[in-house]
Amino acid sequence: MSEIPEDLKYTEDHEWLRVEGDGLITVGITDHAQSALGELVFVELPEEGQVFNKGDACAVVESVKAASDVYCPLSGSITDVNNNLADEPELVNTNPHEGGWLFRIAPESEDALETLMDTIAYEEYLSGLED
Amino acid sequence: MGSCRLFSFYDSELLSDIGTVGAFAPATLAGIVMGMRTPLYQVHVDAGAKIVDFGGWDMPLHYGSQIDEHHAVRQSAGIFDVSHMTVVDILGTEAKAYLQHLLANDVAKLKKPGKGLYSCMLNEQGGVIDDLIVYRRSDENYRVVVNAATRDADIAWMAEVVKGFSANIVPAKDYAMLAVQGPQAIALAGSVIPASLRADAAVLEPFQAAEADGVFVARTGYTGEDGWELVIPADLAVAWWNEFIAAGIRPCGLGARDTLRLEAAMNLYGQDMNASVSPLVSGLGWTVAWAPADRNFVGRAALEAEREAGIGEKFVGLILRGRGIMRHDQRVTTPAGDGAITSGGFSPSMERSIALARVPVGAGADCKVEIRGKHIDASIVQTPFVRNGKIQIII
Lengths: 131, 395
Known about the structure:
The complex is a heterodimer. Chain A is α+β, with helices and mostly antiparallel strands. Chain A contains three helices and nine strands; from the N terminus they run βββαβββββαβα. In chain A, strands 1-2-3-9-8-5 form a six-stranded antiparallel sheet. Chain A has a three-stranded antiparallel sheet with strand order 4-6-7, with no helix packed on it. In chain A, a hairpin with a 4-residue loop joins strand 1 (9-10) and strand 2. The two termini of chain A are 15 Å apart. By secondary structure, chain B is of the alpha+beta class. Chain B has a domain at 312-395: Elongation Factor Tu (Ef-tu), domain 3, CATH 2.40.30.110. Chain B contains ten helices and 21 strands. A six-stranded mixed sheet of chain B has the order 10-11-12-9-3-13. Chain B starts with 24 loop residues before the first helix and ends with a strand. The chains are: A alpha+beta, B alpha+beta. At the A-B interface, helix 1, strand 4, strand 6 and strand 7 of A face helix 9 of B.
């Protein structure tokens, strides 16, 4: 059973988002996603200052066998990326919601989070996928 | 299966369903889509294996950590269920003559019973229908082991070519096939096999097999390590598997099998070669037996014409110097022209990306690999990358 922390928001693409005190939003992939992908061996992150629209491919996570795009969950500019993943991509597997975060983004709009799922909705979404 | 964009794969090979959420469906939704299963399927499920479709078979991808399983084989011993592979026996007074016509390598090299050799089976155009190992059991009995996904096409082709020969093609039934691989594999596995076979099995040379009491054991593998591959009666599979595990051999899935064979620079059919490319541009020229010149094997004329015209490509290893992971079908650029990666991935032993590639013969030591629009530096190297637990290439 996947871990689905209650302080996060979720997308249908299996990303999690956390609103930080300074209004920035931290983004990672969910426990379910890392488990489905398997052991990650390479993560390609955006550059600080890059601007993305919601839905743009902005990062790539590669497991032993396959590469997968990560799509930007909201429009905004990248303020920070997790450079630890260059040497330790496995942090995404071992600690997907904390040490394995991917990037932080300054959202273009405050409303961007409103359409995202909370823990209960994401849990239901996952069980729907398994049916 | 709903679309799920996080999992849009660049590398959609046989193992590509690893990450798709819906990929679990075939194995878990009873009665909807079910792949073929080996006698060990339930053992894998009970051991917590992640099951994926592989050529129509529900097979274990890993039992928790593909990378740990890889290291276990390099450092100690691992066991793989390869019962999906196809075993075909060729029986009859003209079995040898038939195989000398069917295969690009020459079974006349098998001087004594039990010896085996690796060969390609070609079409008339010189393309590779499959790669296989053939063993001589007696003058009128040869055993051929071919791939799983190619089973039907292989047997159909064998039946086509056998016309006019006094030989029968007999697919084996009710067997399991296990591979125990690693520096400790033979020592640990020896106690499990029957006493009647133990002494013979212990002293097998590479590519030699022994058999007794319905058990066939060969000193072969697909990992670059020492070990055995065993064909056993299906009803022994579960008991033997459990005994091998109890002896200290780690269960390993097809994921580790793929990274191990890539490090050992062993070709994967369908990826490194197929029916439209010849062995001469697939690193398999050494498996073509040209002598004697009058041995008329299927595809010979095409290969001779290809050789006569001059072979434009070579099959090489690549090590990525920059960051990233090389994958099947990525473009390789060299001053002599472009080539392509046939198998690529992450090497757990070297902790960097390695690949097999087809490049122009004039390519030198350096090239670039196009990964998502960027051209990343790579070195062209002699393979294998890893053999018997040791990294062979330092760049």
